[in-house]
Amino acid sequence: MKVLLIGEYSNVHWTLAEGLAALGHDVTVVSDGDGWKNYRRNVDLRRRSLGLGGSLRYLFDLARLWPTLRGYDVVQLINPVFIDLRAERIWPFYRFLRRHNARVFLGAFGIDHYWVKVGMDCRTFRYSDFNFGNHLRSYPFMDEMVRDWLEGPKGTLNRRIAEDCDGIITGLYEYEMSYRPFYPEKTRFIPFPIRLSSITPASTFALKPLRFFIGIQRSRSSYKGTDIMLSALEHLKEKYAESMEIVKAENVPFVDYQQLMNGSHVLLDQLYSYTPGMNALLAMAKGLVVVGGGEEESYELLGERELRPIINVQPTEEDVFTQIEQRLLSGQEDVAQLQRDSVEYIRRHHDHLRVASKYVEFWTKSKLS
C-alpha cells in the first residue's frame, strides 16, 4: 500500500510511518516537524517566517510539491488545518488530494471543531480543556480558539472535510467522544503508536530522590495545566526537599527533551485530560510513572481490566499535591512496580506494529464499504 501522511503532532505520523514501513508499506511523511519540536519527516514543509518573504517561499514550496502528491492508496491528514495556511485557503489543496488519490482520512489528534464543540457543551466531560463541570474555563487564548474553531473558517473547513473524507481516526478517548456522535459509521478509535524498540529506558538509579519531570510550553502552560502542576511540585519540594527533585524542560527540541526525560522517574502531563497523550505514552514506554490523565473511561475504551499504572489526578493543585504525596512520596505505592506496569501498558496497547496493523485494517475496510 502506498501511503501519504500529511502533518505532524507529537511524532504520531512519523511513528505510524515506521510501523507501516516495517509491515511492508511504502510511506511518505510530509510535515513541518511540528514546529520547534522538529520531528523527523521525509519531506520538509516548514514555513520559515510569517513575513512576506517567508510567505512567498512557502507558497512556492506548496506549488512545487502539491502536483506530486497523487497516486496514493491512502492519504491521512493530521488535522483539518494540515498545512500552514489560513483555513479558508486550504480547501482547494484538500480537493486536489481527494481527486488524485484513492482514499483520504482525517486524523482527530488535537484541537479541532468537534473537540471544541463537545468540550464546551459542559455535559460530555466532567472536565476538559474547556470546562469544569457546568462552567467554562478561561485562559488567554480561549476566545480566539472558540472564534476560529467553533464559529470561524477553521470550523467550516473541519466540517466540510469530515463530511467528505472516507474515514476519521480518533487517537484519544476525548476525540472519540467528540466525533462518534456526529459520524458513528466512519469514526474509528486507534491508540497512538509508540516504537518500543527505539526507546532508551529512563533512569534505573535508586528511586530516592524521586526525579519529577515536567515539560513546559510557555504559550500553552495555563491551557494544559502545566502551571498548576508545577506549582504543586514546588510546594511539595518545600516539604520533601531531600526526597525529590524537579527537572524542567521549556520549549526544547524533541531530542533534547528525551535526554532530560531519561534521567527522571515521574512525568507530570496533561492535567485536564482523561487519557495519556503522546508525551505521556513516550514516558511510560521509558518506564516513567505518569501523573496526569488516567480516568476509567480511557481504560474501558482500550479494554484494559488489570493495569492501572497512571496516577490519575483531578484538575486542581490540591489533588495533584495530595496524589503525589500519598502515592509516590509517602511510600504507599511500589514505584518500581508502577514503572514496570507502565511499560507493559504500552506493550499491550500502543506497540507501533500493532497500531499500524489496525490502521491498515480500517483503511482497507473503508475501501470495501
Describe the structure.
This protein has 369 residues and is an alpha/beta fold. It has two domains: 2-193 and 352-368, Rossmann fold; 196-349, Rossmann fold (3-Layer(aba) Sandwich), CATH 3.40.50. Helix content is 43%, strand content 15%. The chain contains 15 helices and 14 strands. Strands 3-2-1-4-5-8-9 form a seven-stranded parallel beta sheet. Helix 3 (91-100) links the parallel strand 4 (74-77) and strand 5 (104-108). It is globular, with a radius of gyration of 21 Å. 44% of the residues are buried. The model has no long low-confidence stretch (mean pLDDT 93).
CATH top level label of the largest domain: Alpha Beta
Q: Any low-confidence stretches, pLDDT <50, length ≥5?
A: none
Helix content: 40-55%
Radius of gyration: 21 Å
Spatial gap, N to C terminus: 18 Å
Helix and strand run: EHEEHEHEHEEHHEHEEHHEHEHEHEHHH
CATH topology of the largest domain: Rossmann fold
How are strands sequenced across the largest beta sheet? 3-2-1-4-5-8-9
The CATH architecture of the largest domain can be named as: 3-Layer(aba) Sandwich
Number of helices: 15
> Can you give the mean pLDDT?
93
Number of structural domains: 2
Strand content: 15-25%
- Please count the beta strands (DSSP E, at least 2 residues each): 14
Shape: globular
Largest sheet: 7 strands, parallel
Short note summarizing the structure:
With 369 residues, the chain is an alpha/beta fold. The protein contains 15 helices and 14 strands.
Provide the descriptors you would attach to this structure in a database record.
2 domains, Rossmann fold, seven-stranded parallel β-sheet, 369 residues, globular, alpha/beta, 15% strand, 14 strands, 43% helix, five-stranded parallel β-sheet, 15 helices
